[in-house]
Write a structure and sequence with these properties.
Layout (H helix, E strand, L loop, with lengths): L1 E3 L2 H8 L5 E6 L5 H13 L2 E6 L9 H6 L4 H10 L4 E3 L3 H4 L15 H5 L3 H16 L3 E5 L3 H11 L6 E5 L19 H20 L6 H13 L4 E10 L12 E9 L2 E6 L1
Parallel strand pairs: 1-4, 2-3, 2-5, 3-4, 5-6
Antiparallel strand pairs: 7-8, 8-9
The structure holds adenosine monophosphate.
The site of adenosine monophosphate has 17 residues, from helix 2 and strand 5.
Length: 268
Amino acid sequence: MKILLNKNDLNEALNDISNLGFVPTMGSLHTGHVSLIKRSKKECKKTIVSIFVNPTQFNDKKDYTRYPRNEKRDLSILKKLNVDFVFIPKKKDIYDFKRKIKISKKDKILCAKYRKGHFEGVIDVMERLSKIIKAKKIFMGEKDFQQLHLVKNYLKNKTKSKIIMCKTIRDKYKLALSSRNLNLKKEDLNIARFISKNLINLKNKINQKKDIQNIISLKIKEFNKLKNVNVEYLELRNKFTLKKTSNKRNSKIFIAYYLNKIRLIDNF
Ligand code: AMP
């Protein structure tokens, strides 16, 4: 496994690799990340994983500081997986020129509505990374569905890399794995698991429910009564257009909520 710490190392190492799979991460790796890496290894000749806690996508400085970092552990996981390359750039390697990303008004929904500048930062870093890595395929998680949707649309005509959606990996209690779960207290973890199970049940039952919007409003109230929970949004949207819908067909439930100060997102 080659560890690449700057753009020069990267260019040298990736010269002549055509069938390259790329898994972008912010580190603190868990089984969700591992599933993306395994898929890349299966579909591509060589795999590169990046670890970069991207400052521009954090709308809250404290959130950036609090974000878990476990580089030593990450490297040992990646070594065991026999990953070919790990890219751990510095800020100056990525942000070597200035520019401003804008997302359209119609996209300012869900997390884009509540985390000002977040997706502009995500899109910015993803375009910069994909242009220097030039992978054949980029593997991203369904867990961050809106991120995947926006990045895919934005990069469509800008790079040749194909974005591959990988399914969400959950723990045995149905909670989606996330690096942020590391910051949850035990009792909050149990509440997060309760919310996930509850929404999986709701999604399975949507067919029989007539007034889905009413049910969703009641769910928000129910969840907000749980200790430390503050729901930011809970919405049913079409999974292709991300437009609001009351129709189960091609829909997904999207949630973002705070548990104490930790913000969790998921979709079902
Ligand atoms: P992050 O390190 O949180 O930026 O995530 C890096 C990539 O891993 C993103 O494409 C995420 O969508 C994906 N990912 C995060 N959690 C999961 C999960 N539980 N299952 C599958 N993919 C995930």
